[in-house]
């Protein structure tokens, strides 16, 4: 995965930010909408695309594009930087493949230890009972 090529494929759109801000907020477009077309990306391999499609299925649109918004600051440039940073973290995090689990047997010593523990517990509980008067 080449981050520089992926960043070149991103599309940005500046939108008017919502919320309070007085008269200035009605004139400036500081909110950033980042879109990434996963289907037509040249920077990602087919295996990476499939992995991202499955892991990010809830965040993708019907056309397999990812959309992120950022309106944290009043600066359009800072919002753009934050959006790129979030996007790259999201991609890197979801490209990690979990290790396959290998089945293992418990060692003889651990099995023996478990049996001894169970015997001690059962003896302890047996001693709590009232003695039989036969």
TrEMBL record:
Location of the region described as Disordered in the Swiss-Prot/TrEMBL record = 99-134
GO annotation (BP), single: rescue of stalled ribosome
Please give the name of this protein.
Aminoacyl-tRNA hydrolase
According to the entry, every stretch annotated as the Prokaryotic-type class I peptide chain release factors domain falls at 16-32
List compositional bias (Basic residues) regions by residue number.
Answer: 120-134
Identify the domain of life.
Bacteria
Q: Return the similarity comment.
A: Belongs to the prokaryotic/mitochondrial release factor family.
Which PANTHER family is this protein grouped with? PEPTIDYL-TRNA HYDROLASE ARFB
User: EC?
Assistant: 3.1.1.29
The record, for Pfam families, names: RF-1
Please give the Gene3D superfamilies that the UniProt record associates with this protein: 3.30.160.20
Task: Name the Gene Ontology molecular function terms of this record.
Answer: peptidyl-tRNA hydrolase activity; ribosome binding; translation release factor activity
Q: Which organism is it from?
A: Polaribacter haliotis
Q: List keywords of the entry alphabetically.
A: Hydrolase
UniProt-listed InterPro entries: Pep_chain_release_fac_I, Pep_chain_release_fac_I_sf
Top enzyme class, one word, equals hydrolase
